[in-house]
Amino acid sequence: STQIQLIARPTGWPTHDDFRTVVVDLPDLAPNQARVANEFLSVDPYMRGRMNDVKSYIPAFQLGETMTGGAVGRIVESTSPAHPVGAVVVHDLGWRDVAQGDAGAFRVVDEIPGVPNSVFLGILGMTGLTAYVGLKYIAHLKPGDAVFVSGAAGAVGTAAGQIARLEGASRVLGSAGSPDKVALLTDRYGYDAAVDYKQAPIREQLTNIAGDGIDVYFDNVGGDHLEAALDVMRPGGRAALCGAIAGYNSTDVTPGPDNMVTIISRGLTLQGFTLGNYAHHFPEFAAKMGPWLASGEVVHDETVVDGIDNAVEAFFQLMRGGNVGKMLVRI
Ligand code: NDP
């Protein structure tokens, strides 16, 4: 099995020197185990946090050990009756081409004819569910709400904008980091208006498109984007704090929003969340997203990088905005 390990803890932006590739001989299967040929690996922004040696909601990667992360693959060998050879499984033993371990670590999913299994890592998996949970259970989206999504052209963001519209939002606004992405937001993902945060300060640009203001903010970015959203939130507005990618590679202390007083004066609610605590909403989510996808009411994109040897580069590209929709490594 070819596997990727973290060998040094990055300060600021990670480099290729922080990782190494190793080839590991896998032992014979013990009872109730499975071996999986991975088809797709997920690279995700939260993995940057796991490269730091800090206590968090998910343990840090250990130096010199193979990293973990979302993956989907097919069982090629099994000693577990519930995990037959040929079954497709979603699991957390990513960053390697072949995964092996106790069968309980592998969740069998029903393949969808004609659809690549990568969807189970994206629109029908972790990132799609994150968008749904953030809107419904954290921001308590109601029909008629005006919604702003930052990081709108990414995996979570593209899902969030479309779910908001389908759940009755009156207007959906988005921000992303290039003219092409902004065009996709309005032309393909159904956003009513979108801005490129690299063209001018997001605060100015959001104020220009926000009209009477927003009721719900889905925050993937933090920093200046959160300040911009606070500026335009209407009384009683709610923000789901999902991510703060603007600060993940920063070595500076991130300053707090300079307009926090709006939280008081407008009675705003800001709530953070990590999906692990809300995974029980998956059946409800899948019951909606499956038909939305099948009918074309929801569209999705994936940016696919080929080869385990390019997995680290795929992660770097994700952090730099090189993806539209879900960033994946195809094995
Ligand atoms: P994305 O597909 O959105 O990829 C990351 C994107 O972030 C890039 O494409 C880039 O797009 C954008 N970005 C990078 N740097 C900056 C910056 N300085 N300012 C603004 N945008 C930036 O990743 P995901 O959809 O997987 O994740 C989106 C967010 O959701 C992340 O913050 C992640 O940590 C969070 N998350 C949280 C979860 C939870 O349980 N709370 C679960 C899953 C994700 P651009 O070109 O637009 O800059």
From TrEMBL:
SUPFAM superfamilies referenced in this protein's UniProt entry, alphabetically: GroES-like (SSF50129), NAD(P)-binding Rossmann-fold domains (SSF51735)
SMART domains: PKS_ER
Domain Enoyl reductase (ER): 14-329
Keyword Oxidoreductase: yes
Keywords from the named record: Oxidoreductase
Molecular functions (GO terms): oxidoreductase activity
Pfam families named in the record: ADH_N_2, ADH_zinc_N
Cross-referenced CDD domains: PGDH (cd05288)
Enzyme Commission code(s) on record: 1.-.-.-
Stored InterPro entries: ADH-like_C, ADH_N_2, ER, GroES-like_sf, MDR_fam, NAD(P)-bd_dom_sf
UniProt cross-references to Gene3D superfamilies, sorted A to Z: Medium-chain alcohol dehydrogenases, catalytic domain, NAD(P)-binding Rossmann-like Domain
Protein name as it appears in the record: NADP-dependent oxidoreductase
Natural source organism: Rhodococcus gannanensis
